[in-house]
Design a protein that fits this description.
Structural class: alpha/beta
Helix content: 40-55%
Number of helices: 11
Number of strands: 10
Membrane topology: Peripheral membrane protein
Organism: Microbispora triticiradicis
Bound molecules: adenosine-5'-triphosphate
Strand content: 15-25%
Protein name: ABC transporter ATP-binding protein
Family: Belongs to the ABC transporter superfamily.
Order of helices and strands: EEEHEEHEHHHHHEHEHEEHH
InterPro entries: AAA+_ATPase, ABC_Ni/Peptide_Import, ABC_transporter-like_ATP-bd, ABC_transporter-like_CS, P-loop_NTPase
Length: about 260
């Protein structure tokens, strides 16, 4: 059985416009699928539809199964037990996931309280462990800080610690490194790869940068204007892209890479 299965997933606006059309894919436990496409292709709506967080007025149809259990259209109380415990999402902007008025440690402890019933010292200890696992130096200090007192890279690690605290089997990372600069981005990707491998989680990695998506994914699904246009193993897609849109993405990435190579001594 797949960890996640999306079948004919379609998202419509209130006035009936289809923003995502007939998207179908499967993800096995421990597998890594990259979802790539230009701005506006429908990547974020795919993520929001899976976790039942579409903007007001939009509706999703089709199937989304998690471990064989339908979650699309499931009542809110069911989704509340799924989100954060079985499926976790890390978004591009960690500030959006963090409460500016709450210390980091208390925020990381929150999902542990809600889903695992941890309280007091046990919750604090588990939160510190979660912060240590994402390789944050001096986790005690970080736990005492407010979000604005730590760097952007540290905030994204905190968001990752929150996402992973309850040991979900499925992680969705929606452009998690897009707001970070080069070195911090590379460190974050290495951390993500290590944690996904160590825990055997399924990963849906969303991005617009082919080099980044190809690095962390085993398979890749290309979206164009709300439709899947190509799917395959990363190596195959990079070597022999079959759809014109994929060919454009690959040649753009090659040009960028080639330009860098030429600038190097
Ligand atoms: N709240 C909304 N109301 C109306 N249309 C929306 C809304 N959110 C997104 N859309 C439209 O849906 C389409 C897909 O948007 P989506 O955010 O999923 O794209 P994306 O691939 O994630 O792009 P980006 O890389 O820029 O985040 C776009 O045409 C966008 O304009």
């Amino acid at each position: 059985m797949s960890l996640l299965e999306a079948g004919n997933l379609t998202v419509r606006t209130a006035d009936g416009r289809e923003l995502l059309r007939d998207l179908s894919f499967r993800l096995a436990r421990g597998d890594r699928l990259g979802l790539i496409g230009e701005s506006g292709a429908g990547k974020s709506l795919t993520v929001l539809a899976i976790v039942g967080l579409l903007p007001a007025g939009m509706t999703a149809s089709g199937r989304v199964l998690l471990d064989g259990e339908p979650i699309l259209g499931a009542p809110e109380w069911v989704l509340n037990t799924v989100r954060g415990r079985r499926v976790a999402v890390v978004f591009q902007d960690p500030l959006a996931a963090l409460d500016p008025l709450m210390r980091v440690g208390a925020q990381v402890a929150e999902p542990l309280r809600r889903h695992r019933g941890l309280r007091g010292a046990a919750a604090r200890r588990a939160a510190l462990e979660a912060l240590t696992e994402v390789r944050l130096g001096d986790p005690e200090r970080i736990a005492r800080s407010y979000p604005h007192e730590i760097s952007g890279g540290q905030r994204q690690r905190v968001a990752m610690a929150m996402a992973l605290a309850c040991e979900p089997s499925f992680l969705i990372a929606d452009e998690p490194t897009a707001a970070l600069d080069g070195t911090v981005q590379a460190e974050m990707l290495a951390l993500l790869e290590r944690l996904v491998a160590a825990r055997g989680m399924g990963l849906l990695f969303v991005g617009h940068d082919l080099a980044v998506v190809a690095r962390v994914s085993r398979r890749i699904l290309v979206l164009e204007r709300g439709r899947a246009v190509e799917e395959g193993e990363v190596g195959d897609v990079l070597r022999a892209p079959s759809h014109p849109h994929t060919r454009d993405l690959v040649s753009a990435a090659r040009r960028l890479h080639g330009a860098l190579e030429r600038m190097l001594p």
